[in-house]
Amino acid sequence: MTVEFRIESLSSIHDRERFYCGVEPLDRYLRELAAQDVKRRISNCFVALDDVGAIAGYYTFAAASLPLTELPPAVVRKLPRYGVVPAGLIGRLAVDVKFRRRGLAGAMVMDAVVRAARADPAIFAIVVEAKDESAEAFYRSLGFLAFAVRSSSYFLPISTALQALAKAKR
To answer: Would you say the pTM of this structure is higher than 0.85?
Structure first.
């Protein structure tokens, strides 16, 4: 059975109580804090909904900046000599246990890429913080690159992600 997902901004109509990814801080964040962070403009929260409107996954997205000194030299050589470049931070990303292994996490990352590409303020890259080795492997499989100095942190240039999306559509 194939389930189609749609991704939209978190709102009061979404039932956050039934979401369970198995990581208590991520479950609690969606239930108790996500709406507050959106209201205070700390981050936006986007939910992936199944065909009956149940939350299958979510991610948070906020503005960030990357100091050039933290990027690999091969990337820095291609950039202007500003002190920092603009970025979008995926702070949290979680998939309900019932919807795992369906490509939803990758689809939510690509949703963030598309949102960043459409944003009026320029965004050079998406940044993530991997919580464990499994998350690191997942982000690397999507093309994320390691920072020169931050362990467990990765970035994906928007231009690289958009090229991959264009290839996938061919």
So the answer is: yes
Q: What is the CA radius of gyration of the chain?
A: 16
Give which of 126, 120, 128, 134 is closest to 160, Cα–Cα: 126
Distance CA 139, CA 129 (A): 9
Counting Cα atoms < 13 Å in the Cβ hemisphere of 28 gives 3
Q: How many residues does the chain have?
A: 170
**Mean pLDDT across the stretch 117-128?**
91
What is the average pLDDT across 105-118? Answer: 94
How many C-alpha atoms does 99 have within 13 Å on its Cβ side? 27
Alpha helix (H) residue ranges in the chain: 24-28, 34-39, 73-76, 104-118, 133-141, 158-169
As a whole number of angstroms, the distance between CA 101 and CA 6 comes to 17
Quote the pLDDT of residue 10: 97
Nearest to 7 by CA among 115, 161, 111: 111
pLDDT tens-digit series, residues 56-66: 999 999 999 99
Tell me the H-state helices in 54-170.
Answer: 73-76, 104-118, 133-141, 158-169
Over residues 144-151, the mean pLDDT reads 86
